[in-house]
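Practice set, problem 2.
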Amino acid sequence: MKDATSQLQEFVDGIEASVAIIGHGDAGALSVTACNEAFFQMTGGRNRESRGFPIPFDALLPSYARFEFRKKLQECFDTGVAQELELAFDFREGTRWWRLSLKPFRHPGGNATVLEILVTGLDITPKMELTHELEVSTSRFRSVVNAAYDAIVTVDQEQNITLFNRAAENLFGYDAAEMIGQPLVRLLPEQYREQHPGYIHHFARSPVNSRQMDERNRINGLHRDGSLLPVEIAISKINVGGLVEFTAIIRDITDRVRLMDLLQKEAATDPLTGLPNRRQFLDAVERLLDASGHLSVLMLDIDHFKQVNDTYGHDVGDEVLRVLAKVGTGVSRNLDIFARWGGEEFVAALPGKNIEQACETAEKLRATLEKQDFAHNWRLGRAIPFTASIGVATRKPNEHDLEAIMKRADQALYRAKESGRNRIEVDAEAGVS
């Protein structure tokens, strides 16, 4: 009749997994009382034909694997509770990973006090290699994301932030740890927060997977300090386990917006005087025509300006133009628009003023220029005398023809110059309000 050890050996040989039975020897040291060939292969020890059982635990296990394995075995012996651990065994051909399950048991029919451990090992090398590859891939992804020039922010289906890269930290002034789990709307100006979730839900239902956000209008983010950040945003979505995630690539366009604003200002501004130019004036007055009420226009021309240039030079002539711009702006109200029409001609739009009020403004401007009633440090050290002729026109009831109004103001200016200059003439068609 077979002894217990032979029966155990036959039992473990029939199992394809790595299997061993470990107990305590006579001296109390751990020993392997039975194991199959897979266990020998796992540990890299000699096969059982060259050695008999029991085999000392330390003789079968490589030194680097003993401490953790022995610790788990002892816990199993002490508590009688099953344990698990993962061990790596290094060989010339590479490293193999195993998941070991330790289950305490007693020999049936034998000494009830003898406790041994059944060790079952599963080769998890493919899984660990895949995990390593994923870790490398994830690490590479994080490196690329954190090295990106643009801010990258990912949110989950609830629009809470799940990724906040280093460029996003620099752009918005928050650390990633502060923003992970926070709602995306924290990065938006207050006036856009209520509508934003609706935009995201609409995009989630759209068949389009990526798009540039609001290409026609300027978009602003909100910095930690409360300042607005002009940004350009591209947003994409992916399905992760049935849930939609959104990733936004956010580019700081502060310098571009500053340049665009400068170019726009230059396109609408007279470079010599700093006043609105002719195009800007016409655009602004066209908008004023949409409203009802009084609207008057002044058109003025510097008298004998060619003589100023011929006598003092063009630099002084330019100075006279700048002086008139300064005086005209000072006489105007905040609602008025004072602009350079071209050459030595200037125009003013006076919304809310009837013809009498417009004439009062025109007379104040004419008299100020004639009397040199303004402060200015002339480059020649003395004031350059000059006057201006002014034509005044007013809008007819319900009139929306700006060209006609400007034509009447120009005709009135012509009459002022023909009548001796340094005077005001009124639109011949203007009625008395």
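Problem 2, part (b): a different protein.
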Amino acid sequence: MTQEVIRSPQMEQAKPSRMTLRQSERLTGYLLVAPVIACIIALIVFPFFYAISISFTDKMVGTEGNFVGLENFGYLLRQSRFTETIRNTIVLVTSVQLLKLVFGMGIAVLLNQEVRGKNIWRGLILLPWAMPAFVAFITWKLLFAAQGGAINMILLGTGLTTTHVDFMSKELAMPSVIIASFWRGFPFWVISFLAGMQNIPQERYEAAALDGASAWGRFRYITLPGLRHVILVVVLLSTIATTNSFEAIWLITGGGPSNATMTFPVLAYYGLQSLRIGEAAAVSVSLLPVFAVLAFIVAVLLQRQED
């Protein structure tokens, strides 16, 4: 025999009051995050889609612009400068990332050891990254100067060369930019790798040492696998940052000589200088598929490691 539960008026009112409180808390949460969402939409989402939309138009400064489809992208592909830009960007990004990986990993391993004054060295290693980009690359331009540059003075003073070296020549401009970009960005890799090494249990190294593993063996089978996630994320972030870097090229070489250091941000800037906003936007938008594929590959690799 079933029994019916007799609800009092107080019990009938209790549930609605709890639901009202829950809804009130939810509404409060929405109100708190609303300014952040509004800022993201205004500063990120809207400019992102607006840039994509105008890349399909012939918009210039002071004009509305008409829809031209893929005409801007076709125009870029027919330009020899665009081909040189692709080649220069690949050379710059690949070289800088390899240097950062090798030196960043090596310095991180050294700073992870029990060396004297390691905390001081960890602080000093951040100076290139903490320095404003404008100051850093102007300084490197002065160092590379053919007349009165510090590097030329050292080369001449030590007898390594008998004439001034033109580091801004077509042959040496790209290596000069690579060196400056590497110097400015490698501390980020060092700190990231060092932070990842702190999360690797020390017991693994001790057990490997007891088993007779060499220093290279411990690095290969313990350190590298333990840093796999960090390496993938840092490579992705640094690749995007280096590809989009404008200061290094513009302040040191301006994209020259003869387009020897022309990259996507500088090419887009020249498009803005000529008031052709649609073409400049097409230069930037052409990188989106590359970044999307790179992010997808990194996400897949990270997911495989999690599985």
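Answer key, part (b): The radius of gyration is 28 Å. DSSP finds 15 helices and no strands in the chain.
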